[in-house]
Each structure stands twice: as C-alpha cells, then as structure tokens.
C-alpha cells in the first residue's frame, strides 16, 4: 500500500493515526486518494463525459467534439452540474422533510421523547409564514407549522413562503429572472426531467433551472431543517465544547454519532445521561459513557448540547483507528462505506439507523421517531456490551481543543443589540467604519485530494489578519475549532486589531460557529437582516461579503454555492473547476450569473489566490457603498502584527508530543 504522498493533514493527531494505519496495512481514504489517479475527464480537466443515455457514454476530449446525439461540451457540462446541484438540494431538503414529519408527530403526541423546546422560535417561525398564534395552543401552532412545511415539499404552484424573508430587492430579482422556486420537490424533479436525453439543451437555460432548484434548498428545505431543529431542540446559543480525537475517553464507553440529522442523536444524548445506562456501563468495567460527534451531526449536538466533536469529514475513519470506539452510529450523508472495513480490524460496531441507508457489513437498527428513546437506549446498551471487547487504544489526548460554538442569527441579534433593542446595527457600523473590512463565510468539507484542513486554515488565518470577520459551518467550522479559532480570548491573538477590538467589545470569537451545512440558511437570514438594517446597501449583493468552500467534495456544496450566488453572494470554491472543459459554462457561472443575480461562482485552487480575490471583492463592494477605504493601520497595525501561523510548533514536533 502506497504511503500517503501529500502531507495528509495539518493536524498532528490525524498524521499520527495515519502512520499507525500505514504500519498496520489498513487502508483509509487518505491512502486510497494517494493511490488513485482521478479520472481527468470526470473532473473536467481534460474532457467531459455524458452518460445520460445508453447510446453513450460519450467522452468529449477534443475542442468542438459532440456526443452521439450532438450534445455539446457546454450542454453536457451544464447538465452534469445541474444534476449535482439537484442531488445536493435533494439531500438537504429530504433532511428538512424528515424533521417536518417529526414535528408533526410531536404535534399529534406520537413522538416519544420529543417536545417543543423553544416556544419563542415556534412563534417567530409561525410569524414568518403568516400562521396565527393569538389565543392558540402550542400544539395547534406546531401542527400548523408542520403541515405548512410538509405542504411546501409537494407544492406545485406559487412560490416558497420563506422567500418573503429576503430583502425586497432580492425578491424582485428572483421574480424577474424566473428563479423563484415553486415547490421543493418540483424543482428537483424538473432538473432530472430537463437533463434526460433529448430535453433542455441550452446551457444557460439548464443552469437557470438549476439555480431555481438550489434556491428551493437554501430558502426551502434547508431553512425548514434549521428552523424546525431549533423549535424541537432549542435555538443554539454559545456553549463550551471540545473538538478533535482527543475528546475520546480512555476509560469510558465511547459512542460516536455521525451523519446529519439531529433527531436520533438528540435522543442518544438523552440516553447516555440515563443513570441506569451509566450504571450498566460501569458494570462492564467502564467509568462511564462518552458521546462524541463527527461531521454535521456533531455540529448539531455540539452547538445545542455542548457534546464534544471527534472532528470533521476526514476524521471518521481515524476515530475508529484509535481503537477506542464501541459504536459508531450513522444516519445519512457523508458516511464512507470504508467504515465497516476499518472497523473490521477493531471491536467497533458500525450501526446504520436511517431507513434510507444500509451499509453492507454494518448492523442496522432502524430509527423511528415514534419510539426514539427506546431505540437510542438499546443502541447505548449495545455499545456498553461491546466495551469488554476493546483492545489497545491510541487516543491523541492533547489534541482536544476547547471551542465556543453555537452562534445563531437570534443570538447575534441579542448579543449585538441587547434583549430590548435586538439589532445588527453595531456589526453594520463596524463594517462601515472599516474596523471590520468585510465578512467571509468559510464552509464545506474536507477532501483527501488536499492536505486536510490546510486550505481552510490558510484562508481563515489570512483573512482574520486582514480584519475580515469569519462565519463558519459544517466541516470548515470543525477545522477552525481544531486550531483554536472558535475560542473567545484565545483566538484573538491571531486577528487584526480592528476586528480584535470589535470581538473584544461584543465578546465573540473571531470565527463564529453557525452550525451544520443546512444551517448555511442562517447565513442567508443574517445577510438579509444586514441588508435591511441600513448602512450597507439594500440587497445581499451590496454587502462586502464572500462565501468560501476551499476543500469541498460533496454535491451539497454545489447546491449551497449556487443558492448563495442566487442570493447575491460571490462564492469561491477550491479543489478544482468541475466544468473546466467548458469555457461556456465557466463563463455562465461567473459572468452571466453576476449580471443576472449580482453574485458569481468561481473555482480557485490556491488558497493565496482565494484570499486575494476575497479581499479584492470586499474592497470593491466597500467602494461601491462609498465606505472609507480599508486602512490596515487606521485602528492599529493590522496584518503582520497578528500571529503568523496557526501553529506555534512544527507538525513533527507536535506529533511527537502527542503520541510520545
Ligand atoms: Ni457539509 Fe455536513 Fe462535512 Fe461536507 Fe459533509 S459533513 S453537510 S457535505 S463533508 S461539510
Ligand atoms: Fe451521448 Fe447524448 Fe446520450 Fe449523452 S445524451 S450519452 S451525449 S448520446
């Protein structure tokens, strides 16, 4: 087995575990990525491939070449991209649908263990959708919200209800450009239809439909997912948590929840606190039960319950390689099939729980919200039973990094303005004065084709030094957490003085953890409020802000990028341009979309270039708003004054410290 050729991770904890995997001959996504030669046609670098009908597949590798049916490179690139966006939107939205059904079951008293935990959020969501609340019971309002959400998935005409939350100017653009989504499922289905052989064959026209589909995710499925999760489990507010493999416990039963939906994981949080189950764990020789998360499930339970996170996407195999996991409980999305292979070398039991996901070799215990607590308890008990089978462990204990996650739109409003005059004005003013140069959202995945977390941290650290406030979700947020950027005081030595002053005054870390990937909808809500608050124009596209996904890998990331562009944002994705072979489509995403939506999508590989383009865009937007030119020295010496690196010691020295 080839040793990983690029540095696999900037995280010494990950590198140490990967050395062990190499030694033991255990394959991981890191080693496979190093062994693989990615298909250059599939990734758009040297051609483009269509397999939408069985006259093909058609591989176009030369200029001017067309498929058997005559489809051009532009058409094929647009169709492939549109299908990826539809798949990503479907994943987010289906997650939202399941939450809507859980909410419905709560309203009808059929959901064991669940309740409305956040009535204030219930009322505010009702108000957004015109659902009356006066003189009505919580149950009645809950039922109406659940039914409204469920109806939006199957809605055929009109437009999605959340669109009215956007700035009026944005709503007008959607109408004018014909991209206001009519219903959630309808938009996804229409992309599958349009990209079937012999349908829509105009790249721009295909991508306009894809834009509408992505908006049905951001302002539909994902927004419902976020709001219903808040109603059921509480709107996040800052918590103290911990990130990285070091959060695993040597002498306790370790259970990992991995995937995306908070429904079962929240019940497991309840179950691990059950005194009877704790006593059961003790009877098996453990000192207790330790629950940790991976990926977006981790973000969900960390920001609401302070449950530690074992890390982001590329940490899933590494967690099992510690030898310390009794059960890895997975639901949907971003779960590698390799988990069962890695687990076969250890005692770890991989448990699938979603009716939609089975993995050969894993135990399937199907989740049902009507008996959620019973199911959660039986899973926890199984993990305790497995503790006696544990062998040698290698937990990089010192890698555990303290974090403060859980900044919701609601909490920022309260934090900036106080309870009685909630507002975003202080933030807008800080940007207008130039103390904060602008805002960047660093989001998205890890990708084993790159060094884990490096692009995230190169981008984040450089932007912070330039007084750019960062908001973050998904695996990007967990990366920021690992290197100390999600901490109040501690993170501030890495920040330019203007931004630092604001962070100190308001009491926030320089990187604000806003949750999971479906919670990118929170970013839309925040941007909408910033646009309507005054001082930064009157549309999202006026705000000096940029969206970044430097290590993306999933189709969901493409859906998010598109709806952000459609909402007016400039989005830069790293890794590679999947439509590289088609200049036509590359131009539609950047130039044509900018003209129509005020936002654009570009693919930029180098972190340095991403930073440069981000700052240029922020400064361009500042100039358009006639704000003072950003001056690094105005509020003290920015830039070099901040700490240079995200690490104080070189990687090898940190690895040596961690694993002795
Ligand atoms: Ni987002 Fe969450 Fe991570 Fe990427 Fe996957 S966990 S939904 S897709 S890998 S950020
Ligand atoms: Fe080839 Fe056209 Fe069929 Fe695609 S749709 S596989 S380009 S014949």
For this structure, what is the CATH class of the largest domain? Alpha Beta
Strand content: 5-15%
What percent of residues adopt helix (DSSP H or I)? 40-55%
Q: Using only CA atoms, what is the Rg?
A: 24 Å
Going across the biggest sheet, name each strand in turn.
6-5-4-7-8-9
Quickly count the helices: 25
Average pLDDT, to the nearest integer? 93
Number of domains: 4
| Estimated structural class | alpha/beta
> How is the biggest beta sheet arranged?
6 strands, parallel
Shape: globular
**What's the total number of strands?**
16
Regions with pLDDT < 50 over 5+ consecutive residues?
none
CATH-derived topology of the largest domain: Rossmann fold
Q: What is the CATH-assigned architecture of the largest domain?
A: 3-Layer(aba) Sandwich
Ligand kinds = FE(4)-NI(1)-S(5) cluster, iron/sulfur cluster
Distance between the termini: 26 Å
Structure, explained:
This protein has 660 residues and is α/β, with parallel strands linked by helices. It is 47% helix and 10% strand. It contains 25 helices and 16 strands. Helix 23 (583-597) links the parallel strand 15 and strand 16 (600-603). The protein starts with 11 loop residues before the first helix and ends with a helix. FE(4)-NI(1)-S(5) cluster binds at residues 260, 295-296, 312-313, 334, 444-445, 474-475, 516-517, 554, 556-557.
Summarize the structure.
With 660 residues, the chain is α/β, with parallel strands linked by helices. Helices cover 47% and strands 10% of the residues. α4 runs antiparallel to α8 (203-233) and α9 (262-272) packs across α14 (372-386).
